[in-house]
Specification:
heterodimer, A: two-stranded antiparallel sheet, 21 helices, 2 strands, 74% helix, disordered C terminus, B: mainly alpha, globular
Chain lengths: 523, 493
């Protein structure tokens, strides 16, 4: 058993372990699941340190046949990008579990079972090297998240849970058809395997050039629909604010921290890798929507009165940067997008925890209820401030480096070949500063007008334990991002090399494309 | 001679035992146990011999002898052995569950168990049929038994209505079927399936009559498998009939109808049929398109109408219509892969549907109470295990991995996409999305809402409660290891 498989199955074992605990012994259940996630984190550290950043391709690959009839296998492995995502998952999960201790007050056994299953599913998504397996993990996540929002959520939790479920499944079922089509095409028509089908990612990737451009277009759209709903890209984002506001704090943390990244991860892993021609073709429209999302998310965040809603909409805007970086399709942009995925997980996770802290004390999230909290909760204010500035993109904190690189990527992108995407997106940074600073000011500064806020206590030990690791990494990434960026550099370079080759072929007319290609013709 | 005789045993046992159990009942009318145990023993015996036949078939024993004994009216291949087994599993689950269910409404009678055996005999004859007449006898034996079983609650108006409705419409559809058979015979000059196929392939059949006959047969079989637009009876019958009977009709009964559908489709749409150069050829493309249209509309209509149901039993009835539509995809593909996908799905479907109906039956009272969605509110608190298992069935019916229902759909999608019916797979996707809403709607009720209702507050431990653990375990095991079941099915074809 490799370290990778251990990392993957520890949460699964933990989840079933929880089922055997006495349901009234709350403390034990909490500590057991927290322990499980910490063990998973420690094991994944082994992954991080034994990962060879200079090697091309996937590492720790395991390939076990699972269903011979359709050549589906338990194929897992990781490259630089998935390594960072796996680390993010194993890092955020214990923090989210820690915050569950305060915010989850009923049906603990079911909750921790669901949460660990969620972690298992997320790790599976990032580790799968088999389209079939990937799809299964992708869908497994739905079930626990649906229950977490639906059982432990806020007032309109049922509406939010059902909306989340339906939105996600709409996208993923079309992706399923595309996976089947792709498998039949590559396994049957191209390779003539005895099974007539394959879902081996590496095999499909190797032969992805054999997919005709017009078909690629449809496959690209089917995959992209599923991923862009998850990201979520404007105008597919409407499930996100509902899900975020209604989910319990740990649910929001994991949703913003990791779940959304599954979408952007999928875009890079599948859309860019498998369908580079269509990706170049669609880069313009998708980047356009990403920029609209950046501005739209910021403007809507500006008028919210609920703190959690502001952060939810800021996620729409931040993920817009990630998508923009991805579809810039150069090394700067994609590296920026990957690091921005990590950043957003850390800073938004921290912000959601901060909101959860005041929500547990006051049971409201309305900005007007607060004001002058800096007087009673100074340490809380500092940490909230750090997370907020990280989210704004202050140099020296992590958000800056990600946004800077994605914007730089968009500026210099030969695929987009239009600086206006980046120019307009940059204004989004300013908007972000507006709504976050304004929110922060209204909550923290001014007179302590509301009597109920006077007795609020500052951070307790659990809250320290949740926030300090996040702050450490927020600063670390801001000061020396290379620790992490170097990990994904090789795999990104490989991808960009492939894209550049395709771009070159397109310009030379080696790949026959349909019309409607003004974006790449000018290069 | 002896090995051929063994092949005949499942059919012989089920026929003799169904008669014997009536006699035992006539001699000793007060003992309820006799029918119960007799039927269990016979089904286990039938299933055991069917399994044996299955492996005999795999090991390549020449089966012509058995076909000869029955004058080629019946065949004894892996396909029929597989369906025999499936019917036996379905019937066994139904009988084990029926005892508690019927006891709760004080209507347990030996007749019920007899009827199950008769229906079983009918289904098995259908799956074995090699001749239009045996097919007809099988279908009628099963259908007439179902008409009676649907009205098993003589005192309940809904049940009687279900029976009458089913009977009237069923009789009508039988007319289509017989007419179609007559046309097939008229155009091909034979009632034996292989000879009909030969006549079609050689172009000696009259294509106009043949098309007409084929269309009528498809209609008749669509009725039996509750496919659009012949599904109208299904919701009323399924929701009016006693829950155990519904579970039986909508799983094993549907499996039987689909096995007949496969047999007929194989016969009239020969694989790799090339009409060029034939003077008078059947237009197989049109037939396939017709079945594809039926399949697409069945799943859409079934799921859309299920969407607005407030009654769980009725929702399951409509969803059962929709699942017939999914399974017809396997016939549209008309390849070995398509049939095995259909057979895989029908196995999974049998377990999840019967499981869901057992739970519905456990919770219902007085034949028609506690069936509403609202009655299930907060069930997860009062009966955590029961609610969790129901959730597994719902996720499986909706086709969410890793439940087995997902793999069933996956194989069906694969088979139709592989034969160029991508649009049908997309329709199936859209209808699956629709279906998610009402399946998880039940989970919403069970898990996300509270109520102080008495539903499920105290449930006795009985066979039914053990059965739901068994069926849900099967759904999960097939889900985690679909390859095993698939290779089992592949060896049957």
């Amino acid at each position: 058993m490799t370290i990778l498989i251990a990392t993957l199955i520890i949460p699964l074992i933990g989840a079933f372990g929880v089922l055997f605990l006495n349901k009234d012994n709350r403390k034990l259940i909490e500590m057991f699941s927290l322990g499980t996630s910490l063990v998973a984190f420690l094991v994944s550290l082994g992954l991080f340190f034994s990962f060879n950043s200079n090697a091309e391709g996937f590492q720790f690959v395991t390939d076990v046949t699972w269903i011979p009839a359709i050549d589906a296998g338990f194929r897992v492995g990781l490259d630089g990008m998935s390594l960072l995502m796996v680390m993010l998952t194993t890092f955020i999960t214990p923090i989210a579990l820690l915050s569950s201790i305060n915010s989850i007050n009923k049906r603990h056994k079911e909750y921790y079972f669901m949460f660990l299953m969620l972690q298992f599913g997320m790790l599976g998504v990032f580790l799968s090297l088999d389209l079939f397996l990937f799809y299964i993990f992708w869908e497994i996540i739905l079930i626990p998240m649906y229950f977490i929002i639906g059982i432990w959520g806020g007032k309109d939790r049922i509406y939010a849970a059902v909306k989340f479920f339906v939105y996600t499944i709409v996208g993923s079922l079309f992706m399923l058809v595309a996976i089947v089509w792709l498998g039949l095409h590559i396994g049957g028509d191209v390779l003539s395997l005895p099974t007539g089908f394959t879902s081996d990612y590496l095999l499909i990737k190797q032969h992805s050039a054999a997919i005709a451009p017009d078909v690629q277009n449809w496959l690209f759209l089917a995959f992209a629909l599923s991923f862009l709903i998850k990201v979520p890209l404007f105008p597919l984002h409407t499930w996100l604010p509902d899900a975020h506001t209604m989910a319990p704090t740990p649910g929001s943390v994991i949703l913003a921290g990791v779940l959304l990244k599954m979408g952007t991860y999928g875009l890079i892993r599948f859309n860019l890798e498998l369908f580079p021609v269509s990706s170049i073709d669609w880069a313009g429209p998708i980047s356009f929507l990403a920029v609209v999302g950046i501005i739209y998310g910021a403007l809507v965040a500006l008028v919210q009165t609920d703190v959690k809603k502001i952060i939810a909409y800021s996620s729409v805007a931040h993920l817009g940067f990630v998508v923009l970086g991805i579809f810039a399709m150069n090394e700067t942009g994609i590296q920026g997008a990957i690091i921005q995925m990590v950043n957003h997980g850390l800073s938004t996770g921290a912000l959601f925890i901060c909101v959860g802290i005041i929500y547990e004390r006051r049971h409201t999230r309305e900005i007007s209820e607060f004001g002058g909290l800096a007087r009673v909760m100074p340490i809380y204010t500092i940490i909230f401030g750090i997370a907020m500035f990280a989210s704004v993109g202050l140099p020296g904190l992590n958000g800056f480096i990600g946004e800077f690189l994605t914007l730089l990527g968009a500026f210099t992108s030969t695929v987009l070949d239009n600086i206006w995407y980046a120019v307009v997106a940059t204004t989004g940074v300013i908007f972000a500063a507006c709504y976050l600073l304004w929110m922060f000011g209204r909550i923290m500064f001014g007179a302590l007008s509301n009597k109920e806020n006077e007795g609020l206590s500052d951070l307790n030990k659990t809250e320290w334990a949740m926030l300090v690791p996040l702050v450490i990494f927020i600063v670390w990434l801001g000061v020396y991002p290379n620790t992490f960026m170097s990990k994904s550099e090789t795999s990104t370079k490989q991808l960009v090399k492939k894209i550049e080759q395709v771009e070159l072929d397109l310009n030379n007319g080696t790949i026959n494309m349909e019309p409607k290609k003004e974006l790449t013709e000018n290069n | 001679m002896s090995s051929e005789f063994i092949l005949l045993l499942p059919l012989i046992i089920v026929a003799i035992m169904s008669v014997i159990s009536i006699l035992v009942d006539a001699i000793n009318p007060n003992s309820k146990n006799s029918g119960y145990y007799l039927s269990i023993i016979s089904i286990v015996a039938v299933g055991g011999f069917a399994l044996n036949n299955f492996y005999l078939n795999i090991s390549g024993i020449n089966l012509e002898g058995a076909n000869l004994i029955t004058s080629n009216m019946l065949t004894f291949g892996g396909f029929s052995a597989f369906f025999d087994l499936l019917f036996c599993v379905g019937a066994l689950l139904i009988i084990l569950n029926a005892r508690n269910y019927l006891d709760s409404v004080k209507t347990e009678l030996n007749e019920f168990y007899n009827l199950v055996l008769y229906a079983l005999a009918g289904m098995m004859i259908m799956a074995h049929s090699n001749h239009l007449l045996t097919l007809f006898i099988g279908i009628e034996l099963m259908s007439i038994t179902f008409y009676i079983m649907a009205g098993y609650f003589r005192f309940a108006a809904l049940s009687v209505e279900a029976s009458l409705k089913y009977f009237l419409l069923g009789a009508f559809s039988t007319g289509f079927l017989v007419y179609g058979m007559a046309m097939l015979y008229g155009s091909t000059g034979s009632m034996f399936f292989p000879e009909i196929t030969a006549a079609i392939v050689n172009g000696t059949a009259n294509s106009a009559y043949l098309m007409f006959g084929a269309a009528l047969m498809i209609m008749g079989l669509s009725f039996k498998s509750s496919a659009f637009p012949f599904h109208q009876w299904a919701p009323d019958v399924y929701s009016g009939a006693p829950t155990v009977v519904t579970a039986f009709m909508s799983t094993a009964g549907k499996a039987a109808a689909l096995s007949a559908f496969i047999i007929i489709a194989k016969t009239i749409i020969p694989m790799g049929f090339d009409p060029s150069g034939l003077e008078s050829a059947i237009n197989t493309d049109k037939l396939i398109t017709a079945i594809a249209a039926i399949s697409a509309l069945t799943m859409l209509v079934g799921n859309i109408t299920a969407l607005v149901q407030k009654n769980v039993k009725r929702m399951l009835a409509y969803s059962s219509v929709a699942h017939a539509g999914y399974m017809l995809m396997g016939i549209v593909a008309n390849t070995a892969a398509g049939w095995s996908a259909l057979m895989f799905y029908v196995v999974v479907y049998t377990f999840m549907q019967i499981g869901a109906f057992i739970i519905v039956g456990l919770l219902e009272r007085d034949t028609d109470k506690y069936l509403e969605y609202d009655d299930y509110a907060g069930l997860s608190k009062r009966q955590p295990a029961l609610a969790a298992i129901m959730a597994i069935f719902m996720f499986s019916l909706a086709g969410i991995p890793p439940m087995a229902g997902f793999f069933g759909k996956y194989y069906l999608f694969m088979s139709v996409i592989n034969t160029g019916h991508l649009w049908l797979a997309l329709v199936a996707v859209v209808s699956s999305i629709i279906s998610v809403v009402f399946y998880i709607g039940l989970i919403v009720k069970m898990y996300f809402t509270d109520s102080e209702d008495v539903l499920g507050k105290s449930l006795p431990w009985n066979a039914s409660r053990i059965l739901i653990f068994v069926t849900s375990a099967v759904v999960l095991i097939i889900g985690l290891n679909p390859g095993g079941m698939l290779s089992f099915i592949k060896s049957a074809l």
